[in-house]
Design goal:
- With 133 residues, the protein is of the alpha/beta class.
- It contains five helices and five strands.
- The protein has a five-stranded parallel sheet, sandwiched between helices.
């Protein structure tokens, strides 16, 4: 894998999600980095390769929507795919209005998640190419 290998960040306090998604993503040649909390993710330095964030809504302390807001304040334009087992329409609308690219309800199929991650990574790749010009 080269330094330009896309990265899928996964922030979920559920260990089963953090263990299940990396092997799935690796089948598509993507690197993954997992975090059990929003605070842990915030300590990660920025990356300059195509990347996206799979983010659980319900997290201890700083929840997913709060993390999304904090990232927006710091001009971090990484596509966010929310995942939750406890979503509702107002929560979905709030996340999407704040810039989330997708909002998936658990359980979701591997195919659905992969299609959304693929689109998010393509989006960051196009954005980075525009920035280089």
């Amino acid at each position: 894998m080269s330094d330009a290998t896309p990265i899928v960040f996964i922030v979920d306090d559920d260990v089963s999600v953090r263990e299940a998604l990396p092997p799935l993503c690796s089948c598509f040649g993507w690197r993954t980095e997992t975090f059990a909390s929003a605070e842990e993710f915030l300590t990660h330095p920025p990356v300059f390769v195509p990347s996206c964030l799979i983010l659980d809504v319900r997290l201890p302390n700083l929840n997913g929507l709060e993390l999304q807001n904090r990232l927006a304040l710091h001009h971090a334009h990484m596509p966010i795919i929310f995942i939750t087992g406890h979503g509702d329409v107002p929560m979905t609308v709030r996340a999407m209005k704040a810039g989330a690219v997708d909002f998936l309800t658990k359980p979701f199929s591997d195919e659905i998640l992969i299609s959304h991650v693929t689109a998010a990574l393509e989006r960051t790749g196009r954005s980075q190419k525009r920035d280089e010009k």
